[in-house]
Design brief:
The complex is a heterodimer of chains A (309) and B (432). By secondary structure, chain A is mainly α. Chain A has 15 helices and no strands. Chain A has a single domain, classed as MetI-like (MetI-like fold). Chain B folds into two domains: 181 residues, 3-Layer(aba) Sandwich (D-Maltodextrin-Binding Protein, domain 2); 199 residues, D-Maltodextrin-Binding Protein, domain 2 (3-Layer(aba) Sandwich). In chain B, the strands form three sheets. In chain B, strands 7, 8, 9, 10, 11 and 13 form a six-stranded mixed β-sheet that branches. In chain B, strands 2-1-3-12-6 form a five-stranded mixed β-sheet, with helices on one face. In chain B, strands 4-5 form a two-stranded antiparallel ribbon. Chain B is globular.
Chain lengths: 309, 432
């Protein structure tokens, strides 16, 4: 028995360290970081600072921004519609996540397998991701027309964009249709990386397909679920195109989200200062949400799901 | 109010702004002031291009400073213009919609005040219809020269549907309601409406308030007078609109019809709807999209009167016209003024528009009417504007920009039955 326990040892042995041939090969120094820092600084950090600055001005897009202190911020929190707009944004974000994540996991795990026709069907599922968002939104907008669209005469679908719940449902479906392929891709890659030994061991122990999925696949996908959820949630909070083109925030203000409000305030009302305030709030909320996800999911510790294998 | 004005496709719009910013930033197109050419910014539309090209060619023959057209697609034109107006590369001459589309620039002293030029050259000023010229003023000063056709809101009706229903074009609101009820009981949508875009609904309160309370009701609102929204004419109009919606005057799914998809225009052309209250551009659209209907069945008439209303029944609302304005710091101000003086009322330029179905805001047009695509329609539009005591600019253009969006929102909620008259008034008063 003693021999057996010692048997795997050679296989796990750490290979001898590769001797350094020369001292010229060194770790990258700070200079290597420069392009990324410059790019990030110029196109992300600097505009961000500018937006925060503009949120304290009355800039109209032309002329010199006039400093008005916290007026925009006070106005933002006094605006009655703010809570309605924020709750629509959060509702859509929650619905996007709640519909896209489970479907993507199932599709991704399925696509990681070796079934017949899998490659062909996966390619078909992937198609929406290749289409332009604007084209998709305009296409569905036409399809949902009550008199010439696909739903004409079909009662619940006919006026789908004309009712609050219908418009939200339509947006969730169209955005899901477009972005599920992306998340599916993440899950497919992750599911392929799950070592077969785990499933083999589970089969030996008598686990069925469901148990294998629940106790092996899902825990093994943990880090991918967190990554995909972060992308999805932060992306949803700032999502704009499909909503704008499909419903224009309507009917009434039923699908008005924070990014839409920001666009209307800037390019319709020319209140770029106030729009910058909304943009700042979005930055704060999105950053906070992603930090919270990372903090409470344990993602920050970067535990490997393959530890001990 | 014109379909072109709307930055409908935001994504493309933002793209346009991005491209505009790129152009401005890189200076690749910064010909403003370079050498002897001046930029004239116009919309990129095939039919409009003909008239603009002609005017530039004629002008360039006799001018040292050459005009150069810079055409931009509708979507994103206003965004691109706004970005460039905030930079050092402004267009010398640019196409706009008057009112709210240039008010920010006028107040920021970016536009050439044309008042002294009109004062000096009365003959030039007299070439344009006064009500249209007047509608192009900001704070009492002229900033725009009428550049194309007039676009009053007209009550369009399908002649075939009307004869099937056995009704005549309505002269009064009560007659209109009778037609609505009769159309509905025959399974026809009384009014086509692209309610997915709130500006298409704005034509209703614009006309009703004018008919009920006269033009001064909205003039007070536009001037920002306190309590102006509380005028009884506003309340009564909103009540009438709610009543019309509840009667099924617009069918039951107008909220999901979008203007871009031409859904509303298709409904009336195919006889599924009886009437459409829309700008004169609707006529041009039908000529292009449904030529058969436009030729035989497209009827047009004035908005009816309202019992007890004090407004002039000949008053009209809509978009007086599009204008050309000049940047104040253009290096070619004289050439730019010269271009607008020589071309905007020239016979060749006006004829070009007439042939396309537009009716320019030029005086004494009667003699040129035979050039029009449809003389009957051109004459009707021309007389409508010529005889109108007032030509109210679309509300969303006439009031301050930051108040326009809340107004449109409140109105779409009225049409959805979510807001009553008091709520509508309150929403507008709350709009910063």
């Amino acid at each position: 028995m003693v021999v057996i326990t010692e048997a795997p040892a050679p296989a796990r042995a750490v290979p001898p360290p590769v001797p350094r041939r020369s001292k010229r090969v060194s770790r990258p120094n700070a200079l290597y970081l420069l392009p990324a820092v410059l790019f990030f600084g110029l196109f992300a950090a600097f505009p961000l600072v500018l937006v925060v600055y503009l949120s304290f001005t009355d800039w109209s897009g032309v002329g010199t921004p006039g400093f008005i202190g916290a007026e925009n911020w006070i106005r933002l929190f006094r605006q009655d519609a703010l809570w309605e707009i924020t709750s629509v944004t959060l509702l859509l974000t929650a619905l996007f996540w709640a519909t896209q994540t489970p479907l993507s996991i199932l599709l991704g795990v399925w696509a990681a397998g070796k079934q017949r026709n899998r490659a062909v069907l996966s390619a078909l599922f992937f198609l929406p991701l290749l289409l332009s968002t604007a084209a998709i939104a305009l296409l569905f907008n036409r399809l949902f027309d009550p008199y010439v669209g696909i739903g004409r005469g079909l009662e619940p679908f006919r006026n789908i964009l004309g009712t609050a719940s219908g418009a939200i449902t339509a947006i969730v479906i169209v955005v899901g249709w477009q972005f599920i392929p992306f998340h599916t891709l993440l899950y497919q890659a992750a599911a392929r990386n799950i070592p077969n030994v785990l499933y083999d061991a589970a089969t030996v122990d008598g686990a069925g397909r469901w148990h294998a999925f629940w106790y092996i696949t899902l825990p093994q996908l943990k880090n991918t679920i967190i990554t995909s959820s972060t992308i999805s949630i932060v992306g949803s909070l700032t999502y704009f195109e499909t909503i704008f083109l499909m419903t224009n925030g309507g009917p009434g203000t039923a699908t008005r989200t924070l990014p839409l409000e920001m666009y209307f305030r800037s390019f319709r009302a020319y209140e770029f200062g106030y729009a910058s305030t909304i943009a700042s709030v979005l930055v704060i909320v999105a950053t906070a949400v992603s930090l919270i996800i990372v903090r409470f999911s344990g993602f920050g510790k970067m535990d490997s799901t393959l530890e001990g294998l | 109010m014109v379909p072109q004005r709307l930055p409908r496709r935001s994504f493309l719009g933002l793209l346009g702004a991005g491209v505009g910013a790129g152009i401005v930033g890189c200076g690749t197109d910064a010909t403003s002031g370079s050498g002897d050419s001046m930029q004239v910014w116009v919309l990129q539309e095939e039919n409009q291009q003909l008239a603009h090209n002609g005017s530039v060619e004629r002008f360039n023959k006799n001018s040292d400073v050459k005009a150069r057209l810079v055409a931009t697609p509708n979507d994103g034109y206003t965004d691109k213009l706004h970005v460039s107006m905030g930079s050092n590369n402004k267009p010398d001459v640019f196409y706009n919609w008057g009112g709210g589309s240039i008010r920010t620039y006028a107040r920021d002293d970016l536009l050439l005040d044309l008042t002294p030029y009109f004062d000096k050259d009365k003959a030039w000023k007299d070439k344009f219809l006064p009500s249209v010229l007047e509608a192009g003023t900001i704070d009492g000063k002229y900033y725009g020269v009428p550049a194309r056709g007039m676009q009053p809101i007209i009550l369009f009706y399908n002649k075939q549907v009307f004869s099937d229903l056995g009704v005549q074009p309505p002269k009064t609101w009560d007659e209109l309601l009778t037609i609505v009820d009769r159309a509905k009981s025959n399974g026809i949508i009384p009014f086509a409406l692209a309610g997915g875009d709130a500006w298409t609904e704005l034509v209703w309160p614009e006309y009703l308030v004018d008919r009920i309370g006269g033009s001064q009701v909205f003039e007070k609102i536009a001037a920002g007078e306190p309590e102006a929204w509380r005028d009884p004419a506003i309340t009564r109009s909103i009540d009438m609109i709610r009543d019309l919606v509840q009667r099924g005057g617009f069918g039951d799914s107008f909220a999901s019809v979008r203007w871009d998809a031409a859904g509303a225009s298709t409904l009336i052309a195919r006889g599924q709807a009886a009437m459409h209250l829309m700008g004169s551009w609707e006529y041009t659209n039908q000529v292009t999209n449904e030529p058969e209907y436009a030729k035989t069945n497209q009827g047009f008439t004035d908005f009816p009167t309202v019992e007890g209303g004090v407004g002039d029944p000949k008053a009209i609302v809509g978009n007086p016209t599009n204008y050309f304005s000049i940047s104040k710091d253009s290096k070619h101000v004289d050439a730019a003024v010269d271009y607008l003086k020589k071309e905007m009322a020239s016979t060749a330029y006006v004829d070009q528009w007439l042939e396309m179905g537009d009716v320019p805001a030029v005086t004494g047009l009667e003699s040129q009417m035979d050039k029009a695509a449809d003389p009957a329609f051109a004459e009707m539009v021309y007389n409508m504007v010529d005889q109108a005591p007032t030509f109210q600019l679309s509300w969303d253009q006439a009031i301050e920009r930051e108040k326009a969006q809340p107004m449109l929102e409140a109105l779409s909620k009225v049409f959805l039955g979510e807001l009553d008259a008091a709520g509508f008034v309150k929403a507008n008063e709350n709009a910063s």
